[in-house]
């Protein structure tokens, strides 16, 4: 699988059709995730919230290569990446820590009255998916 940029409209239509989600605010960057046949299988939608923080929404399938490429890209722009999910979303609650996100807390009523969001975050120093620039010397 590969990340592709520059096809935000196509990816947003796919997200709405396949996942029933509508991107209401213009994201900073939308990546499609395509398989070896060029079929759209996933998406990563990123919003820059501040100069130091971005938030990502994930849809569909990802591969380790896609995850590595995305983290290299996003941590080239910000110091902190966040994921929010409904407290009912068992898949994301389980996956976020597996990818290295730490639980931060709840945003009360984020999705409406009584519907809290769980917030997870990651910084580049805690990201196992990127090379931390270890200087290897050859004797």
Describe the structure.
By secondary structure, the protein is an alpha+beta fold. The protein has 2 domains: 1-78, no CATH class; 81-128, no CATH class. Helix content is 24%, strand content 32%. The chain has 3 helices and 7 strands. It has a 7-stranded mixed sheet with strand order 1-2-3-4-5-7-6, with helices on both faces. The longest helix has 12 residues, at 8-19.
Quick recap of the structure?
The protein has helices spanning 8-19, 64-74, 90-99, and strands spanning 2-4, 29-34, 40-48, 53-60, 80-86, 102-107, 117-122.
Question: Can you give keywords for this protein?
Answer:
seven-stranded mixed beta sheet, disordered C terminus, 3 helices, alpha+beta
Q: How many helical elements?
A: 3
The portion of residues assigned to helices is 10-25%
**Would you identify the regions where 5 or more consecutive residues have pLDDT less than 50?**
134-139
User: What is the makeup of the main sheet?
Assistant: 7 strands, mixed
Q: Give the CA-CA distance, first to last residue.
A: 37 Å
Helix and strand pattern: EHEEEHEHEE
Total discrete domains: 2
Query: Beta-sheet strand percentage?
Result: 25-35%
Q: Per the principal axes of the C-alpha atoms, what is the gross shape?
A: globular
Q: Which structural class best describes the helix and strand composition? A: alpha+beta
- The residue-averaged pLDDT reads 87
The number of E-state strands comes to 7
Strand order in the sheet with the most strands = 1-2-3-4-5-7-6
Radius of gyration: 16 Å
């Amino acid at each position: 699988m590969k990340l592709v940029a520059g096809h935000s409209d196509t990816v947003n239509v796919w997200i709405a059709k396949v996942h029933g989600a509508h991107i209401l605010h213009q994201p900073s960057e939308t990546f499609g995730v395509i398989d070896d046949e060029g079929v759209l299988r996933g998406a990563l939608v990123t919003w820059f919230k501040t100069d130091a923080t971005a938030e990502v929404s994930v849809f569909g399938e990802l591969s380790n290569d896609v995850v590595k490429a995305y983290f290299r890209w996003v941590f080239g722009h910000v110091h902190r990446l966040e994921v929010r999910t409904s407290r009912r979303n068992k898949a994301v609650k389980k996956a976020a820590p597996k990818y290295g996100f730490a639980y931060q807390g709840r945003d009360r009523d984020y999705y409406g009255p009584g519907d809290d969001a769980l917030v997870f975050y990651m910084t580049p120093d805690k990201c196992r998916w990127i090379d931390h620039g270890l200087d290897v010397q050859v004797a």
